[in-house]
Amino acid sequence: MSAAAIVAFGAVSALGEHRAAANAGERGAPARVAIGYDDELARAGLARPFAARVPLGPVANRAAVLLERALASCACELDVVRPAWRSERVGLILGTSSGGMRDAERAFEVLARGERVADTEALTYFGPMARAARQLRLTLDPSVLVLGACASASVAIGLATIWLDRATCDLVIAGGFDEVTVFVAAGFEALRATTAAPPPRPFRVGRDGMALGEGAAVLALARPESHVAACFVSGFGLASDAGHITAPDREGTGLARAAVEALDRAGRPPVDLVSAHATATPYNDVAEFRSLALALGRERAGQVFVHPFKAQVGHAMGAAGALELLACIDALERGLIPAAAGDGPIDPEAPARLLARSASAAPKTVLKLASAFGGANAALVVTRGRQERAAGGVRRRVFLHSAAHLQQQPSLDDLAARVRLAVDRVARADAGVRLALAVLSDLEGLSGPLAGAGVVVGSALATLETNSLFGARVRERGVSAAPPRLFPYTSPNAVAGECSSAFGLTGPSFAVGGGMHAAIEALAVAAVLIEAGHAERMVVVGVDDVGPVAQALLPDAGLTSGAVAVLLSAREEDAYSGRHAQARIGEITLRRGPPGAGGYAAGHRALLPLATSPLVRELACSSPPDVFARVVLELLTEGQSTA
């Protein structure tokens, strides 16, 4: 496997645009902090109204505007350094935590008044990506939206390197975006995760949380033989805690496994600088340092320099991984170790090595760490100059092991017993999580234990219904009444997280949702992860919670609530055995078109033939993800006509 050359980038944060957005600082200077008192959050009544805001002024579709600026900046740089790039095969993979949340908040208010919402695309998670992608006026194939919460951008960049390694594209634009909203700020304040006195103080005694930030950042990546570059993404790893939906694994084992995989794939270069997740919350920072100690050794973990960029630009959520990585790439290229914001004594439980002022050095390797709601963990390795990497394995085929579809949602008591969870915990989860847990219980009955597998969840409308409930509570009772137990389920990654926890899915774990074809998107991404050796087995879940909001917004979309689960495996002996009885395949509406503009299929039902027809035997994924998705659609269409 070869490293991916970093050809160009585009970025916007509270620090500025392009190179200013992720600047590693000046030699001898302290870290510049862009976090301050935020008028919007203060007017909403938040007790801790601090954020790092990009000075855009009043604009509609704020998230889309941030992303458009980053993409435009990247495109301009590409026009200079790679003039023919627009004629190449270009892929796009982005991550977000909130998508078009601000537009969704407005839409919920409109619906509450009994009025009709005009622009339904803008309020979805994929809306900003769809709008920004149209501005590029290019055919972007493949195109994927990662909904992996705060690890989204890191996952997106890692998946981009796989596409390049498999010659799916000549160039991939990868990164993430998100904006600050009252909705998200109220949720994090309800979880007591935000600071009362910025700047945040990661890894220090007395730290009390983060401040939110916003922005967008994308990297243009290419195969190394096609471009002369200074820095390369040379390693990528993924793992799940399979524990609590919001709290980290206290020992950091999941993040450590992701880091070890990334370092092994990079050929184990000595790490000079760590781009830390560093949320400055009491438990997360300790867990992160412990993961470093597991990955690098306790002694080296205390010696390597750590850069906690969130303390400067806020927690930019879906954009965080890309912005933080770019800051460390800037440090590699300019030969310095960046300063860390915050003051106070270092926590002896998390003795990270922080600099008060930037210093000259010659770092060659950065380890980027990222964690997220749902227990998702991702790690990237970036090297200055090409590095020798571990030899790649044989490109593996992918087999369909088994599949199940949910025909009837069990009662709370029955579901709790089937998934071995307390009834009150199952009752706390939203409808999408309960649907997914139920169908995985059925899948495990067919396949045997799922423990150790990974999971990718695809959902057409993600957490739209849950977001409406949370937004109504905040709107009616104020931000101080934001329900802390409901907020985690506003993350599309909650389904993957709860499934990982219930079934011991410790492999790669995240959600995708680039449009109505999200279930197909999840199938393609999961297959590529197996093919590239990141997992032996992957569970694919297509799930849709269609309630009054979705029905009001998209009355003609053909969406229904339900779930389908598929188990993919690298082992030929696990291939689908035809154990399922012949069943009539229900009507499936296939909507062909670009992601985010109707998509390919009506949600989870696109996967129904895999669960109800014995026609499909093997999914051999020697094709790129986009081709594979189309092949699967052809299989599904054929299955529909011959059942």
List the helices and strands and how they pair.
Elements: E1 4-13, E2 16-17, E3 36-37, H1 39-44, E4 50-52, H2 62-81, E5 90-96, H3 101-112, H4 127-136, E6 140-146, H5 152-165, E7 171-178, H6 182-190, E8 212-213, E9 215-222, E10 231-240, H7 253-265, E11 273-275, H8 282-296, H9 298-303, E12 305-307, H10 310-313, H11 320-334, E13 336-337, E14 359-360, E15 365-371, E16 376-384, E17 399-405, H12 412-419, H13 423-428, H14 431-447, E18 454-458, H15 464-477, H16 494-503, E19 509-512, H17 518-531, E20 537-544, H18 548-553, E21 562-569, H19 608-612, H20 625-642
Helix pairs in contact: 2-4, 3-15, 7-8, 14-16, 17-20
Describe this structure in words.
The protein is of the alpha/beta class and 643 residues long. α2 packs parallel to α4 (127-136), α3 (101-112) crosses α15 (464-477) and α14 runs parallel beside α16 (494-503). The longest helix has 20 residues, at 62-81. It is globular, with a radius of gyration of 23 Å. Residues 577-601, 614-631 and 637-643 have low confidence and may be disordered.
